[in-house]
Amino acid sequence: MIKSAHDILELVEQDSWMMDILKTTHKLHLPDWWICTGFVRTKVWDTLHRYSNKTNLPDIDVVYFDASNTEEEFEKYVESRLKEEAPSEPWSVKNQARMHIKNGEAPYTSTIDAVSRFPETATAIALKLNEKNELILAAPWGIEDLISLQIKPTPPFKEKEALSSIYEKRVLEKLWDTKWPKVKVHGS
């Protein structure tokens, strides 16, 4: 069913709602922008569970990297622009150039560098449209855990004891194995 990154891209390209979200975000021309985490994971897991209705997303995570403007107010401005375009969507916008401070890490070098430091391998995945409007996928830790329905910590969350507790807390709060019963959760 879903065996490769190409399969994920085809799945997204066939979903008009997802493509509309990507096109709406693309119009803003944010530097190094991507849509990540649940936006991608939910589509894959809903498909692998053969759900006929999509699972509701608590938010649509739009991430970008702009070291020249790390003001949180600008993120809110971007969110308001997205809400003007698609008011019913739960937009969440974060500049990854400032998120290292919140996470207590060294500065990130790009959006994908930041994505590689997300807690779970299955959520460390992102999509965007490039300058030619082609859909591209980034998965710093690969797609194997995503397509095999595995929740595992990314290496940064596995290696640092302080981060492993964050991973464990997220696993308990997110209830992924309740929403998608075939999901297997691994400890940190």
Please sum up the structure shown.
The protein is of the alpha/beta class. It is 45% helix and 13% strand.
Report on the architecture of this protein.
With 188 residues, the chain is an alpha/beta fold. The protein has one domain (5-185): Beta Polymerase, domain 2. The chain has helices spanning 5-13, 16-26, 38-48, 72-85, 96-103, 111-115, 144-147, 155-159, 161-174, 176-179; strands spanning 34-36, 60-64, 91-95, 126-129, 135-138, 150-151, 184-185. The protein has a 5-stranded mixed β-sheet. The longest helix is centred in the middle third of the chain and has 14 residues, at 72-85. The mean pLDDT is 95.
Essential attributes:
188 residues; Beta Polymerase, domain 2; 45% helix; two-stranded parallel sheet
Could you outline the blueprint of secondary structure elements for this entry?
Layout: H1 5-13, H2 16-26, E1 34-36, H3 38-48, E2 60-64, H4 72-85, E3 91-95, H5 96-103, H6 111-115, E4 126-129, E5 135-138, H7 144-147, E6 150-151, H8 155-159, H9 161-174, H10 176-179, E7 184-185
Parallel strand pairs: 2-3, 6-7
Antiparallel strand pairs: 1-2, 1-4, 4-5
Number of helices: 10
CATH architecture: 2-Layer Sandwich
Segments where pLDDT lies below 50 for 5+ residues? none
For the biggest β-sheet, the strand order reads: 3-2-1-4-5
Question: Can you identify the CATH class?
Answer: Alpha Beta
Q: What's the total count of β strands?
A: 7
Largest sheet: 5 strands, mixed
Distance between the termini: 29 Å
Q: Shape from CA axes?
A: globular
CATH superfamily: Beta Polymerase, domain 2
